Amino acid sequence: MLSLFVYLGILLALPIVFVGYRKIEFALRVSRSKSYGDCTVQKPILIGVLQRWVKKQPLDVSFYHQLFLRHGRTFTTHPFMKPLVMTAHPENVKTILATKHGQFDIGHIREDLGQVYMRKGIFTTQASDWHSSRAFVRPAFNKMNYMGLEYLERHFQRLLQNIPADGLAFDLQPLLFAYTLNTISEMLFGVCVEDLGYDDADMQKFHEAEKCMRVKGLRAVHLSTLSNTAARLYRSSELIKSAKVFHQFVADMVSKSVERYQFLEKGARYSLLHDSMERTGDVQRARDEATNLLFAGRDTGAVLMSNVFFTLSRRPDLWTKLRAEVSQLNGNLPSYEDLKNMRYLNNIIKEANRLFPVVPFNYREALVDTTIPMGGGPNGTTPLFVAKGTYVMYCTYAMHRDTSVYGANALDFNPDRWDDPQLRPGWAYVPFNGGPRTCIGQNMAQTEMSYTIVRMLQNFDGIRSEDSAPFKPSTNFVMANVNGAKMSLYRKKLEL
Ligand code: HEM
């Protein structure tokens, strides 16, 4: 009986201790912020979150966009009594990613949990560990950018075989996921997944594991902005199981790749793993970095291409104009030079990266007491104090739809806007991030996307959408359309 009272007492005391702790933390923060901007103006977001929850609407990025429209480009919110700075202001983004890069980084939770689920590497480290990772993979990337286009064509031919007959409805999105898994596994390990003899059940297991890591991993990162302790306690058994499947898969690819390496002539075929092994002899490290790269680079390109084709299938005007540009190649395979010079194609990719940024929002944690240039004071126009340990969420999706940068038609998909010399978005356009942690795979992704889009247009005369639903962003690390990219395609008629 007595112990029941003790338990009840502890249960009642815990919230009081928590609130007291947060109040003291808040008072200390305010006293430290005196010489800087105001950090006490709070905008409530929990009500909006609850409303969405009650209405069974997803808490996707469109919700954050609405918050910026209501509260301005930078505001502080206070869910669970811990401040969270939310910004869609280019000056702030420039500050946290570049000017004050040493004062903001990915955060301790992404570092800790990321290493549990994804191992230690470029995507899950900060400070000196991150410098070392970036230096470790950089030379391999420089070489990979010039590994030629032949491997892309091989994988593209496989993709083509999986596209059904003319006029039959299908979803291009999963085919693109399979395609980019093949291309990236070949780049990283020198062997592509499709050649390793996994059956459909194995592949299904891998895809599910990866999806779970993305969805639940994002939940852990969300939680960390509210409470580091809650995020650390968030150890979903499903997440741990999924990470195990993912690592087993990578370990298997690595061992097959290492086996192959012994029989390869020096410089015969390129892969990041072989290159790093040759340079450093450290297979373990190369495996861990490759795991990070597989996670960072696999879905991103597939999602962007899927969003491009989702749009093309609904916009015959874009399809026709792009076909006219592609037809100038006279059916020849595109070279690097051709891809670089195709202005309309590049505008389409830029516009897709703007309206459907693959990474629609992100976080950085303040590593010291510091400030960002905008968001303080009653009007949000003076520097804002950001206490050590506070997360700043920056929303690329909202920035890319800002009418003050992109004009009144900011929500329209209009590739021609990129021909306007007046349009100079600077830090209001950051699909690949910016500053020292900018996407290291940008060039590679650009080549793969442009090559694949050109080859699709060289092979198909017509495209039709088979889905009338609007774009619905997924709540995942990457922003795919929840309903995929359902369409039918019509093959090029052979000229007799
Ligand atoms: C359309 C394609 C892609 C987009 C839009 C994209 C976007 C991004 C963004 C926004 C980040 C910053 C993430 C953060 O700091 O939290 C990032 C980082 C990164 N990306 Fe990409 N990415 C793409 C393709 C790729 C590819 C193909 C690879 C590699 C094979 C890759 C490798 C990486 C790596 C390693 C990082 C971490 C860099 C660092 O922290 O130093 N990405 N990417």
Automatic annotation (TrEMBL):
Keywords: Heme, Iron, Metal-binding, Monooxygenase, Oxidoreductase. The keyword Heme applies. It holds the Pfam family p450. Heme binds at residue 439. Its cofactor is heme. One of its GO terms (molecular function) is oxidoreductase activity, acting on paired donors, with incorporation or reduction of molecular oxygen. It comes from the Eukaryota. CDD domains: CYP52. Belongs to the cytochrome P450 family. This is Cytochrome P450.
